[in-house]
Automatic annotation (TrEMBL):
Pfam families, per database record: PTR2 (PF00854)
Record-level GO BP terms: oligopeptide transport
Transmembrane domains' residue ranges: 67-85, 94-111, 117-135, 156-175, 181-201, 237-254, 282-303, 315-335, 347-372, 384-402, 414-433
UniProt keyword Cell membrane present: yes
Protein name per the record: MFS transporter
Keyword set, alphabetical order: Cell membrane, Membrane, Peptide transport, Protein transport, Transmembrane, Transmembrane helix, Transport
Major subcellular location class: membrane
GO CC annotation terms, alphabetical: plasma membrane
């Protein structure tokens, strides 16, 4: 059990602790700033210096290489961020520090100098590393052991993430492409400031959640930092680490959205709609739009499946999410085939790809966040969440390498290869599903018992 706090009686809103919505809006603004910057990052790098809205004039390969390193480091920084929270600051203070670093980072990016560009990226990497694993762990801390609402709470939290991502792709993307890239970067910083202010003023709803265990009033919490792990806890760590392999593969494919698929939308897709050209960055908002509109439906499907006694474990949801997401790349295969034969690729291929990617993401990403809080030992709660986000960072680096390879092998080969590999890897995990579930030692069984009462 990874809950690192013993929250007192909490006020509730729509059946969940009010603190969930404080975290919801904090993460919404953090993701607004991050995904807004991501929507224009590669486009800024590859836009020619002679354009009306000049960029840096890098080649696609150079831009995707930096994109891969940056997105990897953003999430790998979650490991030291989680360790600092577990051993020194606690999650709550770490979130505040991370938000401050992010405000500084996005603001520095608004300065039109190369030193400011790299300095801003450094602050953002450090800020996400401090904020991301700790705010997610705090969501788990809102719920007691065996609380059936935990997965649903993470789905609500995840919708908040994507409200920010949806709005940012449209707003920051438009400002960046039309008015100037650095105006877009600066807008992301202003919105992160909103998130910081909201989190600070919402502290009264987070009493007992995210505090440092070493200063807890409960002897049980202080002892948890000292005692060695039990065999059950070690087994659960093992299954978590093995599940992270799915996360690496998933995000290695999924994060083509900000790289190769972003460039494909810009260079190869017919974006004319009733005489108006749709900005390439706007396609980044499709994923978030589908999450907002389909999030509760996908969560409801899995809940109904569980009530019928069918397989609906976290591991099963994750492998199915990987397979569904991989299937979405077959639409990109069709898009490249159409471009090769007619010299034009329709927008609906991208829409269908993002739809499948989103359903896959809803089955894997919020579920895996909840899974970490169920299985991680209390004294390593944020550290394990940090490792989880680091694996998503490794996936981002893989995504960059795959995107770069398109210049050698072509988009058709890369998109098709991703689809085949993801589907086969998901099926391989299914073969070992029973053995992996045994290593959890019934971590999810309590939820099923509570659900039946």
């Amino acid at each position: 059990m990874a809950t690192v706090a013993r929250p007192a009686h909490q006020r509730e809103l729509f059946g969940h602790p009010v603190g969930l919505y404080v975290l919801f809006f904090t993460e919404m603004w953090e993701r607004f700033s991050y995904y807004g910057m991501r929507a224009i990052f590669v486009l800024y790098l590859v836009t020619q210096t002679t354009d009306k809205n000049p960029g840096l004039g890098w080649s696609n390969g150079e831009a995707l290489a930096l994109y891969g390193w940056y997105t990897m480091l953003v999430y790998v920084a979650s490991i030291p961020g989680g360790m600092i929270a577990d051993k020194i600051l606690g999650q709550k203070k770490s979130v505040i520090l991370g938000a401050i670093l992010l405000v500084i980072g996005h603001s520095v990016l608004a300065i039109e100098q190369m030193w400011a560009f790299y300095t801003g990226l450094g602050f953002i990497i450090a800020g996400v590393g401090m904020l991301k694993p700790n705010i997610s762990t705090m969501v788990g801390g809102l719920y007691k052991k065996g609380d059936i609402r935990r997965d649903k709470g993470f789905t609500i939290f995840y919708i908040g993430i994507n409200v920010g991502a949806f709005l940012s792709s449209l707003i920051v993307g438009y400002v960046g492409e039309v008015y100037g890239w650095h105006y877009g970067f600066g807008l992301a910083g202003i919105c992160m400031l909103f998130g910081l202010i909201q989190f600070v003023f919402g502290q009264k709803y987070l009493t007992g959640v995210g505090d440092y265990l070493g200063k807890s009033d409960l002897e049980e919490d202080r002892e948890a930092l000292k005692r060695p792990l039990t065999k059950i806890e070690r087994d659960r760590v093992i299954v978590l680490v093995l599940s992270f392999l799915m996360v690496i593969v998933f995000f290695g494919a999924f994060e083509q959205a900000g790289g190769l698929m972003n460039i494909y939308a810009k260079d190869y897709t017919n974006r004319m709609l009733m005489g108006w050209e749709v900005p390439a960055s706007w396609f980044q908002s499709l994923n978030a739009f589908f999450i907002i509109t389909l999030g509760t439906a996908v969560a409801g499907y899995w809940a109904t499946r569980r009530l019928k006694g069918k397989e609906a474990s976290s591991l099963f949801k994750m492998l199915m999410g990987l397979i569904i997401m991989g299937t979405g790349f077959l639409f990109m295969t069709a898009a490249t085939a159409e471009y090769q034969s007619t010299g034009s690729s329709a927008m609906y291929w991208l829409v269908l790809a993002y739809l499948f990617h989103t359903v896959g993401e809803l089955s894997l990403s919020p579920v895996s966040l909840s899974f970490v809080t169920k299985l991680a030992p209390a004294k390593y709660a944020s550290s394990m969440m940090g490792i989880y986000f680091a694996t998503t960072g490794l996936g981002n680096k893989v995504a960059g390498l795959l995107g770069e390879s398109a210049s050698q092998f072509g988009e058709y080969t890369v998109f098709t290869g991703i689809a085949v590999f993801c589907i086969l890897f998901g099926l391989l995990i299914f073969v070992f599903l029973k053995k992996l579930k045994a290593l959890t030692h019934g971590a999810e069984d309590n939820e099923r018992k509570i659900e039946r009462t």
